[in-house]
Automatic annotation (TrEMBL):
Family recorded in the similarity comment: Belongs to the MnmA/TRMU family.
Span of the signal peptide: none
GO CC list: cytoplasm
Record's catalysed reaction(s): S-sulfanyl-L-cysteinyl-[protein] + uridine(34) in tRNA + AH2 + ATP = 2-thiouridine(34) in tRNA + L-cysteinyl-[protein] + A + AMP + diphosphate + H(+)
Organism: Tessaracoccus antarcticus
Keywords: ATP-binding, Cytoplasm, Disulfide bond, Nucleotide-binding, RNA-binding, Transferase, tRNA processing, tRNA-binding
Example GO biological process: tRNA wobble position uridine thiolation
Residue ranges of domain tRNA-specific 2-thiouridylase MnmA-like C-terminal in the record: 279-352
Protein name in UniProt: tRNA-specific 2-thiouridylase MnmA
Length: 356
């Protein structure tokens, strides 16, 4: 099989490529240049797509003795991921750029180019399992629950899954690093990247302010009483407690939390923690790994990448995914992605539009 191995410059993708070579596949490594102005070095475990990452990927490919290329997807990444991220915050929503990158770049633009060039599949270092089922290829959680990345892959379609490979599905991360050591890969001890890859300093507010500037507005309670001033509603997300700088304390002395963001009038609404609790949310633009499931059906819903799956009744109504939780959840924000599971099998995903 001709396989295009996406090599980020980290240990996971390097070992994934190594396993494909050992299995006898014809492997070509490709590093995605996603930044228009890549920095020379990462800051510890923050960020990715730096020149350092590109060099690390190339060195790993040299050790594996496979062809290696750098593909420039900076323009597509800017338009599909970064610009979308900024626009979502400007609209008062909280997006997940990793899902958007998987949907629009890694398993769309890259896969399409790979197939056009005659490759059979794209392989990545994601921790998730692919199982051949009666209805096609199924996407399941990885064996290592601490590294499972099925949530951020919940946007993939059946056609994309059919041409995807995840060689690390059955392996704990500690074993992956040990394998990299045995293979002589210099990235064996390289820290995992975390946070948002295009914000390497971790300052999301500063990043958004460079795009959106400052636009002062009111912070109010549920009755509309002004409690303070903010410098841009994009600096807040539902469930946030820190950084509110309220001038009037709550009557009971308890902390207040962001309940919702109203970009039309540039207002941030705050209230008690219990006011964040919701039981039902609706998701727009549903995506299915094996085709739509009307329901209602019993399953699990997860609305954060590292969140706890919650028991729920799930259905498709008027083109929207409706999730009714057995127990209340807190801090569910419009713009987040909800991924629904049948056991450990990913059924589909949607973008949360309403929670109550």
């Amino acid at each position: 099989m001709r396989v295009l191995a996406a090599m980020s410059g980290g240990v996971d993708s390097a070992v994934a490529a190594a396993r494909l070579v050992a299995a006898g596949h014809e492997v070509t490594g490709v590093h995605l240049a996603l930044s228009k102005n890549p920095q020379s070095y990462r800051t510890g475990a923050r960020g990715c797509c730096s020149l350092e990452d590109s060099h690390d990927a190339r060195r790993a490919a040299d050790v594996l003795d496979i062809p290696f290329y750098v593909w420039d997807f900076a323009q597509e990444f800017q338009e599909e991921v970064v610009d979308d991220f900024v626009a979502e915050y400007q609209a008062g929503r909280t997006p997940n750029p990793c899902l958007k990158c998987n949907e629009k770049i890694k398993f769309a633009a890259v896969l399409n180019r790979g197939l056009a060039l005659g490759f059979d599949a794209v392989a990545t270092g994601h921790y998730a399992r692919l199982v051949q089922g009666e209805g096609g290829v199924e996407l399941h959680r990885a064996v290592d629950p601490e590294k499972d990345q099925s949530y951020v892959l919940g946007v993939l379609t059946q056609e994309q899954l059919r041409h995807s490979l995840f060689p690390l599905a059955e392996t704990p991360k500690t074993e992956v690093r040990a394998e990299a050591e045995r293979l002589g890969l210099a990235v064996a001890k390289k820290p995992d990247s975390h946070d948002i890859c295009f914000i390497p300093d971790g300052d999301t507010q500063g990043f958004l302010s460079r795009y959106l500037g400052e636009e002062p507005g009111d912070i109010v309670d549920a009755d509309g009483v002004t409690l303070g001033i903010h410098h841009g509603s994009h600096n807040f997300t539902v469930g946030q407690r820190k950084g509110l700088d309220l001038k009037i304390p709550a009557p009971d002395g308890r902390a207040r939390y962001v309940l919702r963001i109203e970009p039309v009038n540039n207002t941030v609404v705050v209230g008690a923690r219990e006011d964040l609790r919701v039981r039902t949310f609706r998701g727009i633009r549903p995506s299915w790994t094996q085709g739509p499931v009307e329901g209602p059906w019993r399953g699990l819903a997860q609305y954060r990448a590292h969140g706890t799956p919650m028991d729920a009744t799930i259905s498709l109504r008027d083109g929207e995914l409706v999730v009714e939780l057995d127990e209340e959840a807190s801090g569910v924000a419009p713009g987040q992605s909800v991924v629904v599971f049948d056991g450990d099998r990913v059924v589909g995903s949607a973008t949360i539009n309403e929670a109550r």
